[in-house]
Design a protein that fits this description.
alpha/beta; 329 residues; DNA-binding; homodimer
Chain lengths: 329, 329
DNA sequence: CGAGCAGCGTGAAACGTTACATCTAAAACC
DNA sequence: GGTTTTAGATGTAACGTTTCACGCTGCTCG
């Protein structure tokens, strides 16, 4: 019979089963114990509806199964799918996720890193572009998309390679003169390398390449203006466009249609990220796909692996090209 | 001077500061203490780089500041923005979020509810349509968008009212004959009431209303087929469409354009949810906006309030209409 | 001037677990 | 059969907090 309101403890179980406290602990933790004892304990656990108190566990062992995930928001589909994958990967490893959204606010980012340390999580997975974020040294920490120096491993897509690949694909599809549409963050981060890769790719392919760098926060209209400035007699100066983000690409596609341009017959279009869904809506666009699941898995491995081997300070995971029906020939 | 590797404890701080253990505890918890003592303790805390061990705290008090959030995924923008808001609201109340993604899998949902109980969270906020989910009784629990009976408070938008409002708005804009495009879930949930509200609204307004109920999982193409079946000589049978989801509405708008129909001149279009952003992309569509922030706040209040007053078993929060430029006249 | 009281710092006990050193009893060996 | 070995159950000592009864100091009031 279970006790009143307060939860039963291991001691209660031990008493109920007529065994010692330590024996219950062993059963709970799957440490081999005499058949007869195990059965008695298991029965008592069921009777009392006993559940271990993970805080007592955590206090003793110093280990909790919690991993903090610090991320600007969940509204950006890339972040959302990243967190989604992280959750699955952690669950598969019997860990769970404590989530913090920062809205890019440096103070909040800093506070959450501190808070995570205080909550005694087993590790931190952090995506922040904040250049002067002070990161923990006591707790395993992995950064995504932002290199914080050799001490903190950073995981990201191969953004440079992705940019290069985009250039290759445009060339393959017969483009001669292309433009890159980009939202330029003031903060340093790995995704910025998409530009370098694309420029290098264009150069290697002998592909003429213009750049339109929209300042972070500037209205989308500036992209429209840019396109119109390069639009004469119903013809665009470019036969290919590379958008550094899928969401920009989708928007640009709409704009191109409104300008009376056909995609991909008149202009070829390629995005970056591999975001395929928006709610119930399937999106189609040629894109460079970020390996979100692999990023998540790599982060979790780095955090949980106690393998003392040399840990790389930067891990770039290969991207892949995916053709989306109507955007590239 | 800080100790070697292991973290300093309150005892270390007490020794360093030359005060009693209890005094340190008071300082840490903001309980008034003699000025001189407080300063000594604070200095010692800084010296030793002391941080409280929240697991020891949790064990003593039985309270942790953790709230579990159980949700199908983060890929749906509605869920994502909900979780986003929940995170902010919880942070403002000095709590933090343990996130679990279930992918609608009943076994996972059940497992996570159990796990959350075990982790001794202070409360659970859960969004699941699973009809036979066994919910905790020991821990405060709030459900979103799904009524589980009088014992579990359920928070949702006023879906019925939203459907009704959509009908009103279409009528106001001069529609005569409208259709509702809907994805019909097999599982019971509050959002299903959008249909009832819309039907009731149309009836009250004297507005002819057809329904197209797409089975969950069926391809979008069926919506297209439906529209084409009601499309004769360049004219659609309907002068207004209500999509039960914004993401459907955006897709439908594309389809309408491809059919050569102008929105809103030829057909008026209204969605539901109030999803405004997709990455860097601003979306525009007339819609019934769900009060996501209010939902989050209400959930958190219900969980944290120890107010023994009568708790409603269903809380429907008012939605509002928002006109999105080019979709409704 | 002394008794009483308020304010406040003190330190021990307790929270529920794990780990380890002990101890018991049965098995193995000569 | 007696002794050694060993498997395995036992119970105690932490882990780092919070809480609370206690006792000290110094102030107030008669």
């Amino acid at each position: 019979m279970a006790k009143k309101g307060n939860n039963p403890t291991m001691n209660d179980v031990a008493r109920e089963a007529g065994v010692a406290l330590g024996t219950v602990s062993k059963v709970v933790n799957g440490i081999p114990v005499g058949e007869e004892y195990r059965i008695r304990v298991e029965k008592a656990i069921k009777n009392l509806n006993y559940r271990v108190n993970s805080y007592a566990q955590g206090m003793k062992s110093g280990k909790t199964r919690a991993i903090a995930v610090i991320m600007p928001n969940l509204v950006s589909p890339y972040f959302a799918s990243l967190v989604n994958s992280l959750g699955k990967t952690l669950a598969a490893r019997k860990h769970y996720m404590v989530f913090f959204g920062t809205d890019y606010d440096p103070d909040q980012e800093q506070e959450y890193v501190r808070l995570a340390e205080q909550q005694k999580v087993d590790g931190i997975i952090c995506l922040s572009y904040n250049p002067r974020l002070e990161l923990s040294e006591d707790i395993p920490l992995v950064s995504i998309d932002r290199y914080f120096g050799a001490k903190i491993p950073c995981v990201s897509s191969d953004n440079y390679g992705g940019g290069y690949l985009a250039a290759e694909k445009l060339k393959e599809n017969g483009c001669r003169h292309v433009a890159m549409l980009r939202i330029a963050s003031k903060l340093p981060h790995e995704p910025a390398k998409r530009r370098d890769g694309f420029v290098a790719g264009c150069e290697a392919m002998g592909l003429a390449c213009d750049q339109m760098n929209l300042e972070d926060g500037a209205p989308y209209q500036e992209f429209v203006d840019f396109l119109h400035a390069h639009f004469h007699n119903g013809k665009l100066d470019y036969d290919g466009l590379f958008c550094v983000t899928d969401s920009v690409a989708y928007q640009i596609r709409g704009t191109l249609k409104e300008m009376g341009l056909r995609v991909p017959e008149d202009v070829q279009l390629i995005g970056f990220d591999g975001i395929r869904k928006f709610g119930d809506m399937e999106l189609v666009c040629s894109t460079i796909v970020q390996p979100v699941d692999a990023i998540a898995e790599t982060c979790v491995n780095l955090i949980l692996n106690t393998d003392p081997g040399q840990i790389p300070s930067l891990l770039c995971l290969p991207v892949r090209y995916e053709c989306g029906g109507t955007t590239l020939k």
